[in-house]
Request: fold
Amino acid sequence: MSIRNRIFVFAVLVTAIPSLSMGLLLQNMLQTTLEEKVEQRFVDSAQIMEREICLWLKKRVYDLTVFSNASIVSEAATAYLKIPEESADDSKNRLQNIKILETYLSTLQHQFKDYVRIFVLSRTGSVIAASQSSGRDRPFPFPDDYIEQISDRQWFKGNVYIDPRDKSPLLLIGLPLFLDQFYEYETLLAIEVRLTGLLPLLDSAKFGDAGNWTYESLVDVRTGRQFLYGRGTKKVLNEINLSPSGDRQMLREYTNGLGERLMGLVVPFRELEWGLFIAENYEKAFSGMIHARHRNIIIICCFSVLMGIVAYLLTRQIMVPLSALTRGAERVAEGDLDVRLPVRRNDEIGFATTVFNDMVAKLKLSQTKLEQLATTDSLTGLNNRKQVMSILHDHYAYYRRYATAFSVLMLDVDHFKVVNDTYGHQAGDTVLKQVAEIFNENLRNVDSAGRYGGEEFLVILAESGVDESIQAAERIRKAVASHIFTHEEQKIRVHISVGIGRIQKQDRDEQKVVSRADMALYRAKDEGRNRVVYQADDDQ
Reply:
């Protein structure tokens, strides 16, 4: 790219970047403001919903209180508790009292159609008497914390559960039957009520002048399960997964099973374990912001093109001979980083030449660093295969000149594929890194270690005898076997097999000792792994 074109591109970028940044900033501010407005609107709606639901629950509790104040309930329950179950007559009397209670409860159940079943329960939640409604023996969840609920508010409620017959949500509400002057109770009066009575509160509504339809559902905040949807809302919200996490209490984007983008949040109720999930179509909620964003993009593009044209016309008037700088750039492109251009001008071109020289110097320094990186394995920090083989070649040349013997260890992590398959490849990388650290801790400064490939490593023991090589290999093997490898709180045990090869006089190159160590490693694996094997010569 010529200097003129670079100036042109620079002018466009100088125009576009600030404009784009300012546009993004304004859009972000607008979006934040709109999100805060939508979020506050949702929270206000949820607070109104919570008040209405609390009133609805208090009405149910009031009905229970009226039911429990009936003398027939207290008399029959008291008589039931006082009669011991010891004889046939006692059992008959208890059954008579149960029959009285069931008749009374059935009468109430026929008068209040929203109540599916009415119970008299024991303190443990077992049924003493129930209304004669269909499915009277159908199980229901009894809350474990009902005693704490009664202590706090003199009544209790269970978790929402689904009626298997018509899939409607049900709720168990109850209160104690106080039977003596000490405010003690042995029985409970409870109703099973359909939550479909709350549907009028969940009907879709319009807020203000925007006319954006909202979708609402009641949620169990402990599990994230939606159990009651507004009319026409289930098909929109049913496929959305509301996990029991804290971030759902912030306005966020959801995608439902229909592929629609929604903006919504879960507002937990303060006095219930429920919450209200409110969502709104994204395009409708942020239509103004989307139009403003498109308009800003068009303006920025037009302004950038205009400034680019002006910059192009200006660059045609300020072009001067830059052949020396151009030739220098070509030499750098060809890989010659020894270029140094003379600075003869005290203007912009002279400054550009100075910058060019500095840039070439930095490139040369970076190239030196890259050459250093090229000799190191990026995962373990050890020498890579090319570098460790170069070091081995130097040891062989030194041996040929001064007869200074050395040994080579070939090490392999046993069953490494099992580690990857069981714990994942990231765990395998962690094991290789920690194995490399064990090498660094157990080798001398004159020794060299490198990653030969995969899970294989090559170690060069300088000026070492047979016994010293075996001791060093055993030391490394035991260190790996006793080390506990950890990855994301997972503890992993591995061990290694080690083959030892020693340089011989008849070796014509360094590959012979590597081959000898590799044969020893093969024997170590063949003999059961997690061991050290020394290969004296090629035939043994």
About this structure: Residues 206-211 have pLDDT under 50 and may be disordered. Residues 381 and 436 are 8 Å apart (CA to CA). The first strand starts at residue 115 and ends at 122.
